[in-house]
Amino acid sequence: MRVLIAEDELLERKAMRKFIEDNFAELTVVGEAPNGRKAIELAGAHEPDIIFMDIKMPGINGLEAVEEIIRVNPATKFILVSAYDSFDYAKQAMKFGIKEYILKPGKKEEIVKAILRVQKEIAAEKKQRAEQVQSNQLIKEHLITKLMKYPIDDDAITIQKQFFAKMKSSYFLVVQVGNEVSEELIETVFNKSIEFPFIVNHNGDSYTICVFPSVKVDKAEILHVARKVQLELGSDSFVGAGLPCASIEDLPKSYQEALHACYQLERENNRNYGFVLEKEKHLTYRDSLQWLLEAIEKGDDMEAIRLFNENQDNFAQNTLDELYLYIKSIMIERGIAVVERTLSELTKPKDWEKFIKVCCLQIQDYYQSKQYIVKAKKYVRENFQQAITLEETAAHVNLSPNYFSNMFKREFGSTFIDYVTKVRLQKAKELIEGNNYSLKEISYMIGYKDPNYFSRVFKKQFLVSPKRFQQQILKK
């Protein structure tokens, strides 16, 4: 955390700086201000988390500086310092939400307790903000699934007004990415290429994007965005575009257009982005079947049922046999539990609708599990240096610990702890091979506070101690 010291007495400033640096390794003093005006200037430049603010300073006093700093950065925390035990000062401080007040000369115990309380408050607010961000993300993911199907309900309209109140038009893109494109790159491409706010729904290697421009857009502008996304993702990626809508009630149509366009682009493979071509209004039954099969494979129950109902009169019995066997095969390939319905039981259109819907929902669940696993793996890679737990990782991906544990074991064939250990030890090997740190330093860097325990775990995994492994590397 960054700390600023505002104090007009030079010796007082230097003493406070030394005390902080000697006792709080996690705090960094980013500046010293001899008066209120300089405190405001340094606060704007360094955005400190905590400011020690002397009340009585020449020119702009401490409380006036506090008011200005809070106006610009309300998240800043203050510890007021004063030589006067005045209720008036305390009352003004309370007006700004400041709870910490130290009388000069401050006792070390009082200063430590004040810093610890402020650190705890900052940590709690940071956690609350992170939870709010995650909650908002889940609400937005909920919104896009509602905007993909008719009818649009009041809940969707309320969420849109909450998060995208400036929307003047909206449209969908459906992106099919190539095999070698990482999730990190995809996220970067979307943020770089799409100017206006958007939300994303991810299923396997398919990404559905709903964009909310604050101005009216036309086909040319949407085509420009689709082209930018496709060029960034590479020649084996396809971007289907839907027409813009002035009202969110019409957005499911834009989604269907984008989805159809993406299917068409993949099938014809002579262009990589764009809208549905006019000739697609008149499809052969083989084209319709192909679209239906692709919709099922993506788990898109709404689109699959629509295509089935629109074309069932054109499907001969041998076509239905082919459809049934294909659905079974894609579920078996993915290890998804096969729906217990025989072909002979599917005699009516309603039977087929139920069968297709259940299969699509199971495929959706499969893709969703994959998405949770990807998020969990990313979280582990970013936090393995800490005392990471299954419970906090499950909370990060918004699942219960038991469900997350079972899903993780089903995916990797090992426990969550075993996976974390594997990630840590792989990083340890890389660090040892780099020969820039001692084994003790590496132990701490990968999340083990006990170097002896690290040595035992390493030897169990690689059948050689870290010391021996290091010696082998150095001999080469």
Automatic annotation (TrEMBL):
Domain Response regulatory residues, every copy: 2-119
GO molecular function: DNA-binding transcription factor activity; sequence-specific DNA binding
4-aspartylphosphate PTM positions: D54
Keyword Signal appears in the UniProt entry: no
Pfam families registered for this protein in UniProt: GGDEF_2, HTH_18, Response_reg
Family matches, as SMART domains: HTH_ARAC (SM00342), REC (SM00448)
Domain HTH araC/xylS-type: 374-472
Keyword annotations from UniProtKB, A to Z: DNA-binding, Phosphoprotein, Transcription, Transcription regulation
The organism's place on the tree of life at top rank: Bacteria
Gene3D superfamilies, alphabetized: 3.40.50.2300, Homeodomain-like
InterPro entries the record matches: CdaR_GGDEF (IPR041522), CheY-like_superfamily (IPR011006), Homeodomain-like_sf (IPR009057), HTH_AraC (IPR018060), Sig_transdc_resp-reg_receiver (IPR001789), Tscrpt_reg_AraC-type_HTH (IPR020449)
Keyword Transcription regulation: yes
One BP annotation, GO: phosphorelay signal transduction system
Entry protein name: AraC family transcriptional regulator
Organism annotation: Virgibacillus oceani
